[in-house]
Amino acid sequence: MTQLTKTIRDLAADLAAGRTTSVALTEQMLARAEAHRAQGGHAYVSLDGEQALMEARASDAARAAGLVPSPLAGIPLSIKDLFDVKGQVSSAASLALAEAPPAVADAGAVARLRAAGAILLGRTNMSEFAFSGLGLNPHYGTPRHPHDGARVAGGSTSGGAVTVALGMAAGALGTDTGGSIRIPSAFCGLTGFKPTAAAVSLAGTVPLSRSLDSAGPIAHSVDCCAILHAALSGHAIAAHAPALKGLRFGFTLDYVGANVEPQVQQAYARALDKLRAAGAQVEQFDFPELLELPTINGGGGLVAAEAWHWHRALLEEKGAQYDQRVAARIRRGQQQGAADYIDLLDARARLIGVARRRLAPFDAWLMPSVAIVAPEVAPLEADDATFFATNGLVLRNASVINFLDGCALSLPCHADGELPVGLGICGLAGADDTVLQIGRAVEALLRGNAKE
After folding, report:
1. How far is CA 327 from CA 230, 283, 396, in A?
2. Which residues contact 61 (CB under 8 A, 6 or more apart)?
3. Active-site residue 214, yes or no?
4. Which residues contact 265 (CB under 8 A, 6 or more apart)?
């Protein structure tokens, strides 16, 4: 494991053994972030180096006095530019909020990370207002794929993923409304966890869709995500990896299995074969109701309706300052009436009920996190039709879990010599601990570390 990919638990062990200090870790990650910016990188919107070093010195002093509140104590993290940090502007990577007043208090999720002893390095770039799965940003620059600068990093938590992949943070706090944690995790070869929406407070966070938004981590391992989720949710997460033998996994070709790129399909099929070889039951099941989703969301869905509610006054005042692709998607919500919105809520409740029946026989639901590998930036910037079609395909699989009010991990999954993709391990509301525990076992298998 390289210095850039050390897990949170490894870094915590280094701190505990005196092999490093929080100040040293913070200085290293800030130096990488500054070098990234100097080379034209756009992962961070802003760095808070002076404050981060002050916090790191305080963390080292507290550790010397025997005060170590959690495994996150002294660990540097990045924060998506949606979360309030006291004294800073939460711009959501938009010029329309660039002059907003600074936050008077930390967001709930940020406060929990502080209480756990984490060091906050800075605010990460993103799709404006989190409204894209691709991560393009015409205002602050587009964070590029960490292994291929011609490609996107994925959105909307694009900058957060890049900070982790390039060793500019040990973990990233992101949000996920339709895949915004799992998509960049899949593209960048990282692990991302989207919890049940109600599990982590969204107080003090710029919303996209109040029904679908959730907050969670991007990091280097399932254990990292479990540590971060425990701090964010306030619930201890068992460090248990069940035996794969006898576990029952379901997958469907309906909707989420269609139009999958060959190299994604190859990596996904290889992962399923490994699970079967380890003694897990991997079974295809039918979920034809998923095919209704394009019709249900044909008017823009809950995202457009709820985003329009929040943005309508700001669009009236500062619409010219928006990314116009984002503005166009938000304005679709203006066309929805109250009856349309209630129909959406009813359709969601109905499909959640169907999902409970369809998934009842399984310990987890497997799918490709994203149907394609990270696309190239240039065609997306050049053509609106290409952008919107690609954005829809990138969001398709991951957004199913948000609509069903579920939880999901994306684990790195590779085909030989190809870009990373993601294996989605999914469950319904409240299955967070189960998904994380199963994720530990699947991760060990994919990495070749599974116990016999």
Report:
1. 35, 42, 20
2. none
3. no
4. 368
The SS3 of residue 416 is: coil
pTM to 2 decimals?
0.97
d(CA 393, CA 133): 9
Q: What percent of the chain has pLDDT over 90?
A: 95
pLDDT digits (tens, 9 = 90+) for 247-271: 999 999 999 999 999 999 999 999 9
Q: What is the pLDDT of residue 407?
A: 98
On the question of a cis peptide bond just before residue 211, with omega within 30 degrees of 0, the verdict is no
Known catalytic membership, residue 194:
no
pLDDT in tens, 143-164: 999 999 999 999 999 999 999 9
What lies within 8 Å, CB to CB, of 98 at 6+ separation is 89, 91
- HEC string of 159-171 equals HHHHHHHCCCCCC
Q: Which of 6, 59, 78, 80 is catalytic?
A: 80
Q: Are 329 and 297 a contacting pair, CB within 8 Å? A: no
Those residues whose C-beta lies under 8 Å from the C-beta of residue 380, and which sit 6 or more positions away, are: 134, 136, 152, 386, 387, 390
Angle between helices 22-38 and 8-17 (to 10 degrees): 130
Scored b (16 or more CB within 10 A) or e, 327-355 reads bebbbbbeebeeeebeebeebbeebeebb
- Which of the residues 59, 156, 369, 410 is marked catalytic? 156
Dist CA 367 CA 113 (whole Å): 31
Q: Is 24 exposed, middle or buried (0-12, 13-18, 19+ CB in 10 A)?
A: middle
Tell me the pLDDT tens digit for each residue of 18-40: 999 999 999 999 999 999 999 99
Distance CA 371, CA 210 (A): 26
Q: Is the dihedral of CA 335, 337, 342, 343 positive or negative?
A: negative
User: Is-catalytic flag, 156?
Assistant: yes
In the set 180, 185, 214, 410, the catalytic residue is 180
- Per-residue pLDDT reduced to its tens digit, 379-422: 999 999 999 999 999 999 999 999 999 999 999 997 666 799 99
Nearest residue to 414 (alpha-carbon basis) of 91, 192, 211, 187: 187
Which phi-psi region, left, alpha or beta, contains residue 101 (left: φ > 0; alpha: ψ -120 to 50)? beta
- The residue among 423, 418, 424 whose CA lies nearest residue 151 is 418
Sign of CA dihedral 315, 320, 321, 325: positive
Average pLDDT for the chain: 96
Pick the closest to residue 33 from 166, 216, 161, 177 (CA basis): 166
Please report the DSSP string for 26-37 in residue order: HHHHHHHHHHHH
In this structure, are residues 299 and 336 in contact, taking their beta carbons and an 8 Å threshold?
Answer: yes
Joined together, the tokens standing for residue 396 give: 């398709």
